[in-house]
Amino acid sequence: MKDELSKQIISTVRQFVNQDVAPVVNELEDKDIYPKELADKMAELGLFGINIPEEYGGLGLPFKTLSDIFIELSKGWMSLAGILGTHTILSYLILNHGTEQQRKKYLPGLANGLYRGGLGLTESHSGSDVQNIRTVAKKNDEGYEINGSKMFITNGSNGNLFVIVSKTNLNATPKYKGISCFIVEKTDEGFSVGQKLNKLGYRGVDTCELLLQDCEIPLNRLLGTEEGKGFTQVMDGLETGRINVAARSVGVAKVALDMSIKYTKNRETFGKKIKDHQMIQSMIASMATKIEAANLLVSNAAKLKDRGERVDLESGMAKLYASEICQEVCMDAMRIHGGYGYVKDLPIERFYRDAPLMIIGEGTNEIMKLLIAKRIYEKYI
Ligand SMILES: Cc1cc2nc3c(=O)[nH]c(=O)nc-3n(C[C@H](O)[C@H](O)[C@H](O)COP(=O)(O)OP(=O)(O)OC[C@H]3O[C@@H](n4cnc5c(N)ncnc54)[C@H](O)[C@@H]3O)c2cc1C
Q1: What domains sit in the chain, N to C, each tagged with a CATH number?
Q2: Could you give the 3-state DSSP secondary structure of residue 235?
Q3: Phi/psi at 177 (nearest 5 deg)?
Q4: H/E run at residue 184
Q5: pLDDT beyond 80 at 81
Q6: What is the pLDDT of residues 14-29, one digit of tens each?
Q7: Whose CA is nearest to atom 41 of ligand 1?
Q8: Total-model pTM
Q9: Does residue 327 have its Cβ closer than 6 Å to ligand 1?
Q10: For ligand 1, atom 35: residue with the closest CA
């Protein structure tokens, strides 16, 4: 049943990319315009509820399907997968760490796209160093008062629901035990959206600063029931986020390879198609092999997650490898296209500009290596 639905939805997404995304992507990307109509269409298709169970109005699809959907969307425009990526982390956090009251209140709206949101973790002075965040939530009789700011938040201005990671105990040792997550609505008093950032790639989707000034929220917006669980909750969410970032990398790399293959079959130099030059064949072979390996890593992490296993190691490896090869493949695609790869008439230069985000986002690749090494030593000592 789920297999059939998964096949159907992947084919629908492919169609959406060809019919709706392809004709408009260049202009929206170039002008950095938020793709409202495309986002609304994704909501209509049910994509905002990919990972939300049917009982809460979602499609309840496995992570393997989620990653395949992210690959297909990224072949069309990685930014669209970005809009959904952070939204699926938010949904995951509420589903797996929220109370039943929070699930009932938010998941149906997240599934149909009424709520669109993201994760507010990073701050201007602390990205990788999560435990050093300075946003503070103080408890009083009626609720919590949050003060601080968040940086680089995807869906920051178009989203209306966020998980905001804050300190609830400044003296906790280790520090992570003083971190809690809160569900914050855009309409909450004291919440506002700051500057929208102008980016190299990943354009269209909004990346903003969020400001929380004496932001008052009720007690029942603490994610779950206990303070001090926020670090573990958010790391669990990022595990799934890394699968989606890895899948996005595979999608961008795949489309760069597809275009390169087509181009080599047509372009002629020195009296023959460039596909008949061995150095071009060598590049195509390396690109295809790297993509195959990255795809297998993504698929493995997603399948293990579907079996309910801990996948920080596997999703970290998938994110690290897929994002690095994505950057390499996009550069090779540019080499293969020669001067035409460098100009905006073709999307190759967009792929090249989009690729680095996957290296930086959802934990940089240096942090991925630290995490992988830690887990490897735990496993083998
Ligand atoms: C377009 C975009 C969208 C984003 N969306 C979101 C979002 O929706 N929500 C959110 O919360 N965040 C978001 N981020 C933030 C992103 O997760 C951070 O930028 C990232 O985690 C890195 O943090 P930083 O920029 O502060 O770099 P830093 O942590 O300052 O790192 C700087 C450099 O030092 C390296 N480094 C740091 N610590 C170590 C170490 N211990 N060992 C070795 N090297 C180290 C890093 O790898 C990096 O190379 C987004 C970022 C971008 C660019």
Answers
A1: 2-116 (1.10.540.10), 118-228 (2.40.110.10), 232-380 (1.20.140.10)
A2: helix
A3: -75, -10
A4: strand 179-185
A5: yes
A6: 999 999 999 999 999 9
A7: 367
A8: 0.98
A9: no
A10: 366
> Would you give the end-to-end CA distance of the chain in angstroms?
43
- Residue 368 Cα distances to 109, 183, 232, 250, 251, angstroms: 33, 27, 17, 17, 20
Please report the DSSP string for 61-128 in residue order.
Answer: --HHHHHHHHHHHHHH-HHHHHHHHHHHHHHHHHHHHS-HHHHHHHHHHHHHTSS-EEEE--BTTBSS
Place of tokens 């899948």: 247
- Find the helix packing angle between 348-360 and 312-337, rounded to 10°: 160
Q: What is the pLDDT of residues 328-355, one digit of tens each?
A: 999 999 999 999 999 999 999 999 999 9
* DSSP-derived secondary structure letter, 198: P
Q: Is the CB of 317 under 6 A from ligand 1?
A: no
Tokens in use for 35? 């793709």
**Ligand 1 atom 44, closest CA:** 366
Report which of 14, 337, 7, 30 is spatially closest to residue 201, judged by C-alpha positions.
Answer: 30
Residues catalogued as catalytic: 362
- Ligand 1: atom nearest CA of 150 is 11
The amino acid occupying position 278 is Q
